[in-house]
Amino acid sequence: MTRFFPRGPKAVLPAIALLGGLAMGGTALAHGDGKHGAWMGKMFNEMDANADGTVSAEERAAFKQTRFTAADSNGDGKLSAEEMAAARQAKMADRMAAFIAKQDKDGDGALSLDEMPDRGARMMKKIDTNADGAIDKAELDAFKAHMQGRKGHN
User: Fold this and answer.
1) What is the spatial distance between Cα 41 and Cα 122, in angstroms, rounded to a whole number?
2) Residue 83 contacts by C-beta under 8 Å, 6 or more apart in sequence?
3) pLDDT tops 60 at residue 99
4) Rounded to the nearest 10 degrees, how much is the dihedral formed by the CA atoms of 44, 49, 53, 56?
5) Contact 4, 134 (CB under 8 A)
6) Domains of the chain
7) Three-state SS across the chain?
């Protein structure tokens, strides 16, 4: 590991983040093809209640109200931290069930390591700019700088 990451306390977080990303392969992006575009298209279709290809302010407001009402389990017109967490957990459970159904090649209802997509390989290839099959500190630093330079990443 020392070839790829610096040593010491500052090395722990980047190492965990990179290895976690490589191991899990982006399971949080379980819908569609794993790209934000698929998620955005799904949300658009859900909001476009009359299926006319546009989302009006009224449709967006109705969508927001429907989601709020579904999360407001005690019906008091307010969302507590517990209600928000429960809604998030339910959504994540649905996403994970869909992900498993899509990837479960042997139909046993669970994913083996072989059934997990290796989305981390694409990220590794992107970071490995000299294509030697390994990530060195300079490549990791360059990637971090690139990500920090992107809008919305600090």
Assistant:
1) 23
2) 71, 72, 73, 74
3) yes
4) -80
5) yes
6) 1-25+118-154 (no CATH), 36-116 (1.10.238)
7) CCCCCCCCHHHHHHHHHHHHHHHHCCHHHCCCCCCHHHHHHHHHHHHCCCCCCCCCHHHHHHHHHHHHHHHCCCCCCCCCHHHHHHHHHHHHHHHHHHHHHHHCCCCCCCCCHHHCCCHHHHHHHHHCCCCCCCCCHHHHHHHHHHHHHCCCCC
Give the separation between CA 139 and CA 14, rounded to whole angstroms. Answer: 13
The closest of 18, 38, 35 to 124, measured between CA atoms, is 18
The dihedral through the CA atoms of 32, 122, 118, 136 has a sign that is negative
- Structural tokens at position 109: 């209802």
Alpha-carbon 42 to chain mean position: 15
pLDDT bucket at 36, cuts 50 / 70 / 90:
low
**pLDDT tens sequence across 100-150:** 999 999 999 999 999 998 888 888 999 999 999 999 999 999 999 988 888
